[in-house]
């Protein structure tokens, strides 16, 4: 034991952050409302990434705060192993109702990473139940991001997230290509018109290993963390058809694309493609309480409902699965999305946002801009001697000089305004990025 030092920044090890540089000049957020963060030093900053792609209805929503407080007083915790509480069922039903027909069961977890982990485990266990345990391979995609568990980084395709961690999950070595070709797709507005044939890469994996060894394919319908790559027109349909041809399950990781980011409840709706499972997190509670989950098809769910009625069908779950505070936050959030018609609002704003972000074309240091729904990826030309340095510097400049909170990964800036953003918020975000990048 030692006396604690309340103002010392040493103890907190920040995730996905250069800690030493951060602690030398911390970017502290102390309050939030609507589109705005308040910094600890009293400034007002525009939030250009919905927190971390999660605060879709804007910050500080009283309805959500009150629902959480009420739940904390009435039922602070209830186990969902062998017991349950009513709001868990209500929320599952409300989420299933937003999903495509046939996806009507919800398994709750606490984050996007856990959602992907659960979906991948369900896929393998499903095939075992069916007597096809030889189907164990899990196929992800280059540049895919499915969270940070060993399974998630294994099917994921972001090198920095994989390299330090030694041998990864067996059966995950194959990755489909990201459906993007810089030579012909830079500065595409929305979905690229060509490139559906990237989906045919699955046939090559099948030829290599045999379909009877493949459990599932997992993709982000719009690749988010890698820098917002919209699917080429027809690509997801073609991928669905390829999975059907080979009897392979298709998982859409909708942790970012779910709950209105693309102007629809889910990307599955926007692109007219029904996967076998959808993973979600982030926007389900508007970021206010951690929660994630997997929406599972009736066929998969029913595949587990065999054997003696007293036997547990799926040996998986978390202490906090369907936590009462998260369920309360989720229900209040879904009410807001419905009552304020926020998915429709996102759809209406998409062309304004698209025009705004593509106005950055022509800036000398900007080498690509991509967009889908209310999400955009903006690539800065890397410093050849130090990739990632310019992106990091742009984020810091946005914070200090432009009063703007953006997200960067490497030299790619991501913008993802909340669905309540106004046209002037969007203009301010893009102007801030322009000024920050010009100053690099
Ligand atoms: C597509 C996708 N899947 C999974 C995750 C992981 O979610 P979490 O950070 O809640 O574990 C993320 C997070 O950004 C994501 O974008």
Question: What does this entry look like structurally?
Answer:
It is built from 16 helices and 15 strands. The model has no long low-confidence stretch (mean pLDDT 97). The termini are far apart. The protein has helices spanning 19-24, 50-53, 62-74, 86-98, 112-129, 150-155, 159-162, 182-185, 201-209, 235-246, 267-271, 298-304, 324-339, 342-358, 389-401, 423-438, and strands at 29-33, 36-39, 44-47, 103-109, 137-141, 175-176, 214-219, 249-253, 277-280, 292-297, 366-372, 375-380, 404-405, 407-409, 412-415. Helix 3 (62-74) packs antiparallel against helix 13 and helix 4 (86-98) runs parallel beside helix 13. A hairpin with a 2-residue loop joins strand 11 (366-372) and strand 12 (375-380). The protein is globular and about 65 Å long. The protein has 2 domains: 19-57 and 341-438, Aspartate Aminotransferase, domain 1, CATH 3.90.1150.10; 65-339, Type I PLP-dependent aspartate aminotransferase-like (Major domain) (Aspartate Aminotransferase, domain 2, 3-Layer(aba) Sandwich). With 440 residues, the protein is an alpha/beta fold. The strands form 3 sheets. Strands 4-10-9-8-7-5-6 form a 7-stranded mixed β-sheet, sandwiched between helices. Bound molecules: pyridoxal-5'-phosphate.
CATH superfamily of the largest domain: Type I PLP-dependent aspartate aminotransferase-like (Major domain)
Structurally, the number of domains stands at 2
Can you count the beta strands?
Answer: 15
CATH class of the largest domain: Alpha Beta
Name of the CATH architecture of the largest domain: 3-Layer(aba) Sandwich
The average pLDDT is: 97
Shape: globular
What's the total helix number? Answer: 16
